[in-house]
Amino acid sequence: MTDVFHFLGEPLLQFGHGQTAEDPHDGLALFGPAEPRTQMPDHVVIGTDRGVELWTAWCAALNAPAACLDPARHRAWPPYPGFDVAFGARWPNPVRHYVVDADDLSDASRKADKYERAYAVAGLYMKPADRLGKLDARAALAVCVVPDEVHENCRPKSSVAIAKRSDTARSRQEEKFLKHAIDDRNSGQARMFDDEDPAVLAVLEEMDEFEEARGFHPTFGAS
After folding, report:
1. Domain residue extents for the chain
2. Sign of the C-alpha dihedral, residues 75, 81, 83, 84?
3. Edge-to-edge, what's the strand order for the sheet holding 96-99?
């Protein structure tokens, strides 16, 4: 081992008009992208009234320039020229928005069972899926704007305090029965009377679906 250090310089990056720069912030702000786009793909937004409002405002802010007032901080926080300048095309507003009822979403995110929470929340966001095919232009992206409450309650290891739950948790006996019933069904073992009770069949089918919904993972963060 020696005390010799070898300094490797930053590689030059290529930007618009064949120009090069070390820092992508500088290169995009001065010359734009190496391969500019004429148009960004269309997208739709799904969220509560407040969420849709915030997303629309975010789209407008993304296209506007921004900079720290203190020039001394510009090295760490370079001025932002606006999406259209940096990438050669304006970030578009959503072609359509779909509103999720805020109260229904809150109730769904506070269910006692973690699988049922994720399943119910995902179901509310998936409701507009059938309507997307009726748009004149097929959207390339669906943005789900997720409230803080959903983000906090619907992660895989989240739990909801008893006082805040929107329903009553199953008893230990009920949970034990359902677990054994699902395990038996998955192993192909028939259970006497279960197949004859519509209520039991309905719960087992729901539990199968809930088991697949282990957590709600939003594409974009909480707002």
Report:
1. 1-36, 41-166, 170-208
2. negative
3. 96-99, 43-47, 141-144
